[in-house]
Amino acid sequence: MKTFSAKPNDIKKEWLVIDAEGIVLGRLASYVAKVLRGKHKPMFTPHMDTGDNVVIVNAGKVKLTGRKRGKKVYYYHTGYPGGIKERSAEHILSGEHPERVFNKAVERMLPKDSPLARKQMKNLHVYAGPEHPHAPQQPKSIDFAAFNEKNAR
């Protein structure tokens, strides 16, 4: 018996849409990272992009458990000496781009800064509101809250 290794011709990508309203951030991010990598498929190959395209709507209404909403800190650097800055999750979620919290959570669950991880992140489309421009791709809707009672708060 030979080990199966997916070729580019074997890969079939689907489009999935998930409504993140009221869903716990970490649980949804880990599921999306698994789907982006393709680990949910039997033809998973670590060095190929076998994952699906995922559309997340209502990312601004995602829930954080415990006191993470006010205590979780995201750091960034301006590029100048002493230019490290920080923002809380509350500040980002109530700001102009609340989808960045979800993007960062998924990005940190993928392989670290590699060409494959960058390619897989391009298959993630996150929108703060309920509208998305991917209707022509006919995405399949997934009710993530129904998977487990702990997924929604």
What does this protein look like?
The protein is of the alpha/beta class. The chain is built from five helices and six strands; from the N terminus they run βαβαββαααββ. Strand 1 (15-19), helix 1 and strand 2 form a beta-alpha-beta unit. Helix 1 (25-37) packs across helix 4. The model has no long low-confidence stretch (mean pLDDT 95).
| Helical/strand content category | alpha/beta
Span from first to last CA?
Answer: 46 Å
Tertiary shape: globular
Q: Looking across the biggest beta sheet, what order are the strands in?
A: 5-2-1-6
Would you count the extended β strands for me?
6
Q: What's the SSE blueprint?
A:
Layout: E1 15-19, H1 25-37, E2 53-57, H2 68-71, E3 73-77, E4 84-88, H3 89-93, H4 99-107, H5 115-121, E5 124-126, E6 140-142
Parallel strand pairs: 1-2, 1-6, 2-5
Antiparallel strand pairs: 3-4
Helix pairs in contact: 1-4
Main attributes of the structure:
153 residues; 4-stranded parallel sheet; 5 helices; alpha/beta; 17% strand; single chain
Give a short synopsis of this structure.
With 153 residues, this protein is of the alpha/beta class. The chain is 25% helix and 17% strand.
